Amino acid sequence: MKLNLHKTSSRLIVIPLLAYTMITVAPFFWTTIMSFRLTPEIDANPYGLPVPFHIDNYIYAFTKFGFARYVLNSAFVTAIALAITTLVTTMAAYAFARRRYSFFLREPLFILIFISIMFPPQIGLLALFELMVRYGLYNTLWGLILVYSASALPFNIYLLRAFFAQIPQDLEDAARIDGCSDWKMFWRVMLPIARPAVATTIVFNFINFWNEFLYAVTFVTQQKARTLPLAVMFFMGEAYLDVGMLAAGLMVASLPVIILYLFLSEQFIKGMTAGAIKG
Questions:
Q1: Which residue ranges form the domains of the chain, and what is each CATH number?
Q2: Which of 13, 43, 84, 193 is the residue whose CA sits 20 to 30 A from 168?
Q3: pLDDT tens by residue, 180-220
Q4: What pLDDT, in 10s, does the model give residues 25-57?
Q5: SS3 of the chain: helix, strand, coil, percent, to 5
Q6: Within 10 Å of residue 190's Cβ, how many Cβ atoms?
Q7: 8-state DSSP, 192
Q8: Which of 86, 119, 73, 89 is nearest to 216 (CA)?
Q9: Is residue 73 within 8 Å of 143, Cβ to Cβ?
Q10: Which residue has the higher pLDDT, 148 or 17?
Q11: What's the CA gap between 94 and 186, in Å, rounded?
């Protein structure tokens, strides 16, 4: 009787998960199919299969529309912003988490950082726009890098601080007895232990930076500085929508995120699990 109840409860859990998975995967699968079809074919039969199989949309995207430049722009902005964010937030979170680095107004400053997470990004657009124009960062990739890095700091510091705070004090004391300086303590002891949490923030930040649209459309108007989300937007017009090209652009934009998650999925799951247990 208990075995039957266990099987029934397992099925009740699996069925909603399967349904949710199908609902989530279906749009991605459909977009993949449409990317290998031409727009007239899609207009004639939106749910048809790619017969014949076309790669023209991908060829046109990189030859006619210059997708290579936009991919490189997004890769450059994302990589530099990711490096800056990871470096700054890991050190800041470590300083906020450990008792040894207690400094004046540490807790009020952390509360201020936490409160800043609650504000929507739109609230600072006007001030950021004036700063970008004043310091010559408007229509530049470095302007986007600085904005992306600054906008990601509060949430990442908050997340990583909770992880660093859970590392036992005995481990830190033992490392110091062995002669570790503060710098070696961070790089050789604390940071390797926090690797799952850091990997989690890297995945989150990569997705946010790579797909970011609001700041990019506000601070970039020149074609040479456009990122990939801006390039995809230009396949959508008021009079005509090139569905096939749009689907191909979306697939190009999605592929790096999927590849990164496949490489860091194990660390990502460890970081999320550790945060659930320790938090």
A1: 64-278 (1.10.3720.10)
A2: 84
A3: 788 888 888 888 888 888 888 988 899 999 999 999 999 99
A4: 888 888 888 888 888 888 888 888 888 888 888
A5: 80, 0, 20
A6: 21
A7: H
A8: 73
A9: no
A10: 148
A11: 8
